[in-house]
Amino acid sequence: MTQSVVLQVGQCGNQIGCCFWGLALREHAAVNQKAIYDEAISSFFRNVDTRVVGDGGSISKGKICSLKARAVLIDMEEGVVNEILQGPLRDVFDSKQLITDISGSGNNWAVGHKVFGSLYQEQILEKLRKSAEHCDCLQCFFIIHSMGGGTGSGLGTFLLKVLEDEFPEVYRFVTSIYPSGEDDVITSPYNSMLAMKELNEHADCVLPIDNQSLFDIISKIDLMVNSGKLGTAIKPKSLVTSSAGAFKKRQEKPFDAMNNIVANLLLNLTSSARFEGSLNMDLNEISMNLVPFPQLHYLVSSLTPLYTLADVNIPSRRLDQMFSDAFSKDHQLIRADPKHSLYLACALMVRGNVQISDLRRNIERLKPSLRFVSWNQEGWKTSLCSVPPVGHSHSLLALANNTCVKPTFIELRERFTRLYRKRAHLHHYLQIEGMEESCFTEALSSLSALIQEYNQLDATKSMPAEELPRLSVAV
Amino acid sequence: MSIVTVQLGQCGNQIGFEVFDALFSDSHCPQGLCSKRENEAYQASCKERFFSEEENGVPIARAVLVDMEPKVINQTLSKAAHSGRWNYGQHSCFCQKQGSGNNWAYGYSVHGPRHEESIMNLIQKEVEKCDSLNGFFIIMSMAGGTGSGLGAFATQNLQDQYSNSLKMNQIIWPYGTGEVIVQNYNSILTLSHLYRSSDALLVHENDAVHKICAKLMNIKQISFRDINQVLAHQLGSVFQPTYSEEGSFHYRRNPLGDLMENLVPHPEFKMLGVRNIPQMSENSLAYSTFTWAGLLKHLRQMLISNAKMEEGIDWQVRPPLSGLPTRGKMSLNKEFHFNTSIANLVILRGKDVHSAELGAFKDPALYTSWLEPVHAFSVWKTQRAFSKYEKSAALVSNSQFLVKPLDTIVGKAWNMFASKAYIHQYTKFGIEEEDFLDSFTLLEQVIASYCNLGF
């Protein structure tokens, strides 16, 4: 069993991270009723004897003493991290695994990346090494951040380069919150563009998410809950947006509902690696199967179901509905329509009481309406994990490497160009040491090259599959 | 003589458990339909082959469990321990933490050399427990990273270290509509490597077994457990003891050797398929009766029409009329084609087995011309019924059974290779485009050879 370390950077990253840890504890408490520190829980938590002074002696087996998250919290302002450390999850975090500053990055990627990057490089390395030492077998770093601000975007992507150099064998999975249309940070297009270049070059896998999609999902749920259409009530714990029954109840904050969706995404992503099932899928398999070419590592995700009705008997029609929903554009965590674009690869990660025949039936059913690239006509990766998420009897996470990410990137480029053309706010960046106009133009060409790759793939959509003649052998 | 089983990866270990369970249950089944002495001899033979004795009397499977991550092995061990009837050896498993990531190259080039010594030591210990070693049975899938890559590496090691012992690889052919996206790459790399180092490849296709579960066993929500149990039943029907010769009542001591001798006369042709009838749910079994004539008629037609199960057999397919010069090369595009065999082995178990009439299987029209039917066809029998079936008939065939599936996989892999998709994942660990091309070449050769059997 391997371990993963979560690196939460910036305000957004830390808020999502906080929700994640609350839900992770809830999930493990539900599964691990005897409170034994087992391999599953060790993937995200250390077991620490808090009586031992200093580092806290790690206990590898036996009863759970005190759980510490395998996390490093990074923020250049103190507000969010302080709140976390004073809140109900304070004991879950190792107070030494923090890097904070006071002044913040001013929504400036260059400050986050260049200024704070160089300032905190040593400390960052030290904390990372510490976390790695505590792991038996470290497989993956999960980075959570937003693209539009200064810290998450700048320092978060600086981190990627450090990780690549220091831990080249460990996977770097990045969960990135992309700015929505009505984003109130004026410089977010600059920040996002500069961050994109780093993601292109140093991330193994990126899960792009945007706030608008999360918000739409919440609206949808609210509508269903309040419409009275449902005969029976919804199980509160099952709402993908809620932290009901979470280990430590905190006061619900405005973004909590949205952050819980992202937190659930991460839990479901790692479930088949942590828990047993008849067809396991480890984290290294995600990259292997879903990244056909190194640059094309952006995965569109969707989670279903969003809630469970209190009605326990789920007929298989509902199960099939879960699969259909995963492909609808309303369930994607980024504004994208995979059904009408081209699939390069698709992964279905199922949890709960679902068997291989259910999976196969649904793949057969949905296949005709989906378009796969000619060299990967049956590009499905599947996994079955026996342990369902809290409040559900089954769930599905779909990860698609699909050209439907293209519009997000094109829009980003357009917003960037509109600002850059007028040189608006550019001086804030250029006055930082190490920043030049070439940083911007390079970032732009990096993104354009990526968009071009997707364009080329899309062009093949309408062409008939070209069959290369097979090798002929003399008999 | 004993067989040592090596279970590799999630698939190998999950199936391995069901196989030992099926073997054990059958050998202790009270409905053997034969005398007590007969039953005891059967049990003893099964035990010698597959289990060793522990002090407390619990039989220990002659198996080595290998996986690159711990979850499946832990589950397998605990299932065996809980059954209370048989168990795996306490120190028979080798586990790592990280898995192979569905990457053949990682399984073969990284895990293989790194853990070679430990794995071979484990196997050596198991071999030492045998009074006399018949050979190895290696259970693995082709689609993933450990079973496929590490399995190929381990088989090569067995070839080097135990060159006098036989190796049969039990390979699981993945579902056509993927379980793993790079399954076709992993499959062609596995097959080409195994072709060089294994003695025989016994293939089971997930799609075929799935259909058996759906249509014949009437299982509504099919799980991998169901699939593995059908598979285990098929394997048991081949490898449980049978009499050593016609008229004898002693059990065969060299099953692997006899099987290889009968079925693999030429190293170019190593791909074996299994059919087993009847196969049905226990409820249906209670209401069915069988005759050997009926079973053998169906089995023969399944052979020549390449039916994968007893339902939907195409009765139109007939052997070509003898006397006609050549039937020509097998066309891969034709839907229904006569399946030419190199060699066949039929295994009969149950009541009145000596009355079964097998002449139809000796028809020269079934076989390629370079072997006499008397050499191409063999039969094994035992009166002892298998697993509650009053009569059961199994067929192990070296024929054109697997040409189409092989051709399909090679085609898909080639198509993907042409675009170079995912290749960087393999080159990262030392498997270059050259290696892929070598694999393609070897397999195209195999396909061509099998297609030309009709000449």
UniProtKB/TrEMBL annotation, chain A:
Chain ranges of the Tubulin/FtsZ GTPase domain: 49-277
Signal peptide per UniProt: none
Gene: TUBE1
Top-rank taxon: Eukaryota
Keyword tags: Cytoplasm, Cytoskeleton, GTP-binding, Microtubule, Nucleotide-binding
UniProt-annotated location(s): Cytoplasm, Cytoskeleton
Annotated SUPFAM superfamilies: Tubulin C-terminal domain-like, Tubulin nucleotide-binding domain-like
Protein name stated in the entry: Tubulin epsilon chain
Broad class of the protein's primary localization: cytoplasm
Gene Ontology molecular function: GTP binding
GO biological process terms held by the UniProt record: microtubule-based process
Family listed: Belongs to the tubulin family.
Domain Tubulin/FtsZ 2-layer sandwich: 279-414
UniProt cross-references to SMART domains, sorted A to Z: Tubulin, Tubulin_C
GO cellular component terms, A-Z: microtubule
Organism expressing this protein natively: Delphinapterus leucas
TrEMBL record, chain B:
SUPFAM superfamilies xrefs: Tubulin C-terminal domain-like, Tubulin nucleotide-binding domain-like
One Pfam family hit: Tubulin
GO cellular component: centriole; cilium; cytosol; microtubule; nucleoplasm
Alphabetical UniProt keywords: Cell projection, Cilium biogenesis/degradation, Cytoplasm, Cytoskeleton, GTP-binding, Microtubule, Nucleotide-binding, Nucleus
Domain of life of the source: Eukaryota
Tubulin/FtsZ GTPase domain span: 47-247
GO MF annotation: an example: structural constituent of cytoskeleton
Cellular location(s): Cell projection, Cilium; Cytoplasm, Cytoskeleton, Microtubule organizing center, Centrosome, Centriole; Nucleus
Main location: other
Any single biological process term in GO: microtubule-based process
Alphabetical list of InterPro entries matching this protein: Delta_tubulin, Tub_FtsZ_C, Tubulin, Tubulin/FtsZ_GTPase_sf, Tubulin_CS, Tubulin_FtsZ_GTPase
Annotated signal sequence range: none
Family of this protein: Belongs to the tubulin family.
Chain's role: Acts as a positive regulator of hedgehog signaling and regulates ciliary function.
The protein's name in its UniProt record: Tubulin delta chain
